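Researcher: Let's walk through a ligand-bound prediction step by step. First, I give you the protein sequence. Second, the SMILES string for pyridoxal-5'-phosphate. Third, you return the three-dimensional complex as structure tokens. Ready?
Model: Ready.
Researcher: Here are steps one and two:
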Amino acid sequence: MNEMDVQNVEDGLLAPVYQKFPIEIFKGKDFTVWDKSGKEYLDFMGGYGVAIVGHCNPSVVKAINEQASKLMICHCSMYNDARAIFLRKILDVVPSQMGRVYLSNSGAEAVECALKVAKKYTGRKNIVAMTGSYHGKTFGALSATWNPKYRSSFEPLLPGFSFVPYADSSELEKSVTEETGAVIIEPIQGESGVLVPPEGYLREVRRICDDKGTLLIFDEIQSGLGRSGRFWASEHSGVIPDIMCIAKGIAGGVPMGVTVARDDIMASFKLGDHTSTNGGNPLACAAATATLDFIVEKDLVNNAAKMGKLLSSGFSDMSKEHRIIRDSRGQGLMLALELRFEVKPLLMDALKKGLLLLYSGRNILRFLPPLTIGLAQVTQCLEILEEVISAEEKARFN
Ligand SMILES: *Cc1c(COP(=O)(O)O)cnc(C)c1O
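Model: Step three, the predicted complex:
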């Protein structure tokens, strides 16, 4: 492997669907990753929000190693202890109204299950989703994903999907009818630039769904597991959904998707209605149990709230000083800085200075660091940002 040109191999052999950063990572620990030259980066991209408990979290690594040497494969048609332990654990941390779990391998799959079970339970054909939504790129999830850039080449998508403006309850009220099986929504929109809906909005969504007998699906794939400063972003509004989608960091870096629903809803699935060969495999379950334990034991939810406050107050200060910043927003450690120009040069500058960031669209910086960061990492991030933003501002206006 030493002499292999990894970048060339990937560029030549991997499906050309990823916007690549010019960086080759080979090692990670907590909030730090290293490239092959040994250069160290502070990872505020957080593996697109997956590295919730940090890279190579020791308790997760230990759980994986122990489970890997015992049993990795056990189809859900047989019983397994690691799976049963995880099922109890996840139902412990979701609202008590949730009673049953479906296990898969990704966020998009968690959404597929939610959409299918909503159709099955209600017998209704229509789904209402939001403008700006992101739910994944398989055909069902893509049908609920708004961005035309992702959709247009693949039409026709599934019938029955419509979109209403996010955070606008009167438009939603007009669109939800007795034919609507479910409304699917991110309690905080991620991909479209970290949009937190106004106070009271999600309660209105709940009421509208209840009025029409429509199920409410919360996609907490990005906002969940403490990211927003509460265990679930829905807790900020006190709204309980009927179905929840969870993925990204749930298994500490092992691929896993989880759909939880009220018992009566999930029970509408009959034998064979929806299955997955690798879903619920013991390795992912053991990793997920260790991840949830770590989040709870280390009180990462509180840490995310605290560090998020520090980071976002740093952003507010910066936006007063720098006119190229248009807006700063978000909750907990799900934050965004919207600039008045393309962020790509800024991302590259930050990378050179050892800070790994993520974008949302052309002009938004997104921050999804591990929830394990402390004051030192917040300070370092703010310092590097201040440097690259000042430099960019000078280059543009002087
Ligand atoms: C990442 C994400 C998904 C899709 O997850 P994949 O694992 O990439 O399929 C769905 N919904 C939201 C809100 C996400 O952030």
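Researcher: And what stands out?
Model: The radius of gyration is 21 Å. The chain has a mean pLDDT of 97.
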